[in-house]
Design brief:
alpha/beta, six-stranded mixed sheet, five-stranded mixed sheet, 9 helices
């Protein structure tokens, strides 16, 4: 990986330092992380869909509906850690599923194919978000070839969904410009999904978006415009509210089998956490 600027070096160090404090159960591969891909390269295209079909992106949600969000499945060597059982949790009002990154442990083809195999059994669309583990060993071209863009927008009835690429612990100014501009034509309900968390529980929790200016800017962009933003990465549940937006970080599915069901109506949104 070519590091293009001093700022890139700083962001890389900020991403590496927390790994020194992670438990061994996280199975972090530092070589894989260092050999991950560049954000700018991944963001050369948006809204290119290989895995998602036209019907996945254009079906009706209805006036009241629900959807499921989970994170950090870390599929590895074909082991999906029980994700196959999610199909049994789907309820009639559930219209789609989102997995907010680290779908795989190392971004390998076998595990991307395992995700696709499971997703197609759910009976409703499953929207994937790229995470840092999904681009390990510069494997993001596998994501590109099997999934498509790492940044995209989907519109349903009165709802707009925005998926952002934060797999390098950064959004980049161009991606935030894109989000700002796209929100101008968004529907009345707006939900944003990304991998790296904006908030932490304590001062010693430092796995998050490294650039405080980016965090401030996305909070400003979403203020009074989005219903909620969903994240993962830190393997713990964190819920904050700022500027009228709910910021919900979901614990990892791999160890906790946890998912969040979100209910949407004209009266607003609500959610509950459940386990398989």
């Amino acid at each position: 990986m070519v590091i293009k600027s001093l700022r890139s070096r700083i962001l890389l160090l900020a991403a590496l330092v927390p790994l020194l404090f992670l438990p061994l159960a996280c199975n972090v591969d530092l070589v894989g992380l260092i050999a991950s891909g560049e954000l700018d390269v991944r963001l050369e295209s948006s809204n290119v869909f290989t895995f998602l079909t036209d019907s996945d992106r254009n079906h009706s949600l209805g006036g009241e509906y629900s959807f499921i969000v989970l994170s950090d499945t870390h599929i590895e060597d074909g082991n999906a850690h029980g994700l196959e059982g999610l199909k049994d949790a789907i309820k009639p009002d559930d219209k789609f599923v989102v997995i907010t990154g680290d779908i795989t442990q190392n971004g390998r083809r076998r595990d991307i194919e395992k995700f696709i195999e499971i997703a197609r059994t759910l009976g409703i669309p499953c929207y994937p978000v790229v995470g840092n583990h999904d681009i390990y060993f510069n494997n993001w071209p596998i994501w590109r070839d099997f999934i498509g863009s790492t940044r995209y927008r989907i519109d349903h009835d009165t709802t707009s969904l925005f998926v952002l690429d934060s797999a390098n612990a950064s959004f980049g100014s161009a991606q935030l410009d894109w989000l700002r501009d796209e929100l101008r034509s968004a529907k009345s309900h707006v939900f944003v999904f990304t991998h790296t968390n904006l908030f932490v529980e304590t001062p010693v929790d430092i796995q998050q978006i490294a650039d405080t200016r980016e965090r401030a800017r996305i909070l400003s962009i979403l203020r009074d415009r989005a219903d909620a933003m969903f994240m993962g990465h830190v393997h713990q549940r964190i819920i904050r509210k700022a500027g009228g937006v709910e910021y919900i970080t979901i614990e990892d599915f791999r160890e906790n089998s946890t998912y969040c069901r979100v209910h949407v109506s004209d009266r607003g949104i609500s959610w509950e956490f459940e386990k398989l």
